[in-house]
């Protein structure tokens, strides 16, 4: 019976025509939303405008995407997942390098993805939707995948376990954070270092994307590489 189903193309493992059509339509809706995002920013994303662009009635579109918030969440999850894929691939390509070099490769991949997808990057990293405010059960695991790549590289640095004099309140908050988001067990200094790695690179990349560094006549890549070098060597990122 199973072989006969496969011959007829009805094996349960193969999506049926309706499922394929639904997946294709969802991708068309997302593509239209990304075009709006690029042209008008987050506030310009409109379900009615998307329906008009792709030739679908409003009620029909709502059968695929029940709300504008749901659409933004879907775009955010896609962005975080793609960024995590990019960082994981960079780490895998440098698996035999020392941890500092791997961390640099991860940081460069982060910048390259953000520069190639500036609107999606801003949506994921610079909006409340991207923080998981609307759908933490979906957004946070996707975002945590990217952080886990950084944590894994930092854990292999020679001084990864070196004690850092942190306020007790901050140490407790860092441990609570990683437990809440499902991060891997890690010593507090490693958690702080990973968080600073992300925040400092995000700060430079955001300044670059918004042309602040260009207005200062500074080379963003030189600044970025200098920061990566400092982050790979700095064993005491916290100073009282």
What does this 3D model show about the protein?
- With 240 residues, the chain is mainly α.
- It is 70% helix and 0% strand.
- It contains 12 helices and no strands.
- Helix 6 packs antiparallel against helix 12 and helix 9 crosses helix 10.
- It is globular and about 60 Å long.
- The N and C termini lie far apart (71 Å).
- The N terminus is likely disordered.
Pattern of helices and strands: HHHHHHHHHHHH
Q: Helical stretch count?
A: 12
Low confidence ranges: 1-10
Summarize the biggest pleated sheet: none
- The separation of the N and C termini measures 71 Å
Number of strands: 0
In short:
The chain has 240 residues and is mainly α. It has helices spanning 2-8, 17-40, 47-54, 58-61, 68-93, 99-116, 118-125, 136-155, 168-181, 188-209, 212-215, 220-233.
Task: Draw up the topology in text.
Layout: H1 2-8, H2 17-40, H3 47-54, H4 58-61, H5 68-93, H6 99-116, H7 118-125, H8 136-155, H9 168-181, H10 188-209, H11 212-215, H12 220-233
Which terms would index this structure?
240 residues; 12 helices; mainly alpha; single chain
């Amino acid at each position: 019976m199973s072989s006969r189903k496969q011959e007829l193309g009805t094996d349960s493992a193969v999506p049926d025509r309706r499922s394929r059509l639904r997946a294709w339509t969802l991708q068309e809706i997302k593509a239209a939303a990304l075009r709006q995002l690029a042209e008008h920013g987050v506030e310009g994303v409109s379900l009615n405008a998307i329906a008009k662009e792709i030739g679908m009635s409003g009620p029909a579109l709502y059968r695929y995407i029940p709300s504008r918030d749901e659409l933004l969440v879907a775009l955010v999850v896609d962005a975080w997942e793609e960024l995590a894929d990019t960082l994981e691939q960079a780490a895998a390509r440098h698996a035999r390098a020392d941890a500092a070099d791997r961390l640099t490769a991860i940081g460069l991949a982060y910048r390259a993805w953000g520069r190639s997808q500036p609107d999606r990057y801003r949506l994921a990293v610079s909006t409340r939707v991207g923080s998981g405010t609307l759908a933490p059960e979906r957004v946070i695991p996707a975002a945590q995948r990217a952080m886990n790549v950084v944590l894994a590289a930092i854990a292999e640095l020679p001084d990864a376990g070196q004690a850092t004099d942190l306020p007790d309140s901050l140490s407790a908050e860092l441990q609570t954070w990683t437990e809440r988001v499902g991060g891997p067990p890690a010593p507090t200094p490693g958690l702080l270092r990973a968080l600073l790695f992300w925040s400092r690179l995000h700060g430079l990349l955001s300044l670059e994307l918004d042309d602040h560094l260009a207005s200062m006549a500074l080379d963003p890549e030189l600044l970025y590489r200098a920061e990566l070098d400092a982050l790979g060597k700095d064993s005491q990122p916290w100073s009282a």
